[in-house]
Amino acid sequence: MLEFLKSHVSVRKYTDEPVTEEQLHDLIEAAQGAASSHFVQAYSIVDVTDADKRDKLAELSKNPVQIKGAARALVFCADLKRLDYAAKKHGKTVEAGTAENFMVAVIDTALFSQNFVVAAESKGYGICYIGGVRNNPGLISELLNLPEHVIPLFGLTFGVPAERNEVKPRLPVQAVLHTNEYDEAKYETILDEYDDVIRTYYASRSTNNKSAGWTEGMADYLSQPRRAYMLDFVQRKGFLKK
Length: 242
Description:
Elements: H1 2-5, H2 21-31, E1 43-47, H3 51-61, H4 64-69, E2 72-79, H5 81-88, H6 99-122, E3 126-130, H7 137-143, E4 150-159, H8 173-176, H9 187-204, H10 214-222, H11 230-236
Antiparallel strand pairs: 1-2, 2-4, 3-4
């Protein structure tokens, strides 16, 4: 199992082999075994099977190759709407606007989705998370008829892989493990060494070769504001108001 978990790669090209409803339901049931804060299970999936909707989702997320080419295109949503209905049964309302309940919904969805990924990969499928769903969250919400208290966090394509990339080396354990207290003094040395590892990987992999290290890529990626509209969108959906 440990070696299996370490073998994960994102798959971006799939065969035309279908995934049946029964196979999809089995994976979702396995995913539902994930931990859930106070058992709220604050997540939903939209399985986009309509060809026109899938084309529009591909356009809005700016990921046409993955979304159009996969057996299944799913959108994972943080969802407190179902909890609204649960509360109404007892004459109460859900405080969806608090930061804590927003975090609960996001964390629940992330844990649920990762269980889905592990289950899918255990059956030989490949997957790719599609963060591009957040490129147009408002229009995608309209496309999928997502109500208040439901937001699309990310997409996920999966199917039978047509090709697999090499496993990308992760940060060393000592970079992410701290004992008793946070130790930032170690980063300078560790990141220099990790840059060398990533440069070697990029230079030797079978496709999309480049010479950059990890820190260079992260500096380029995180030094500019991205999707600055997200806070406004999340608040318009009824979250993060308190």
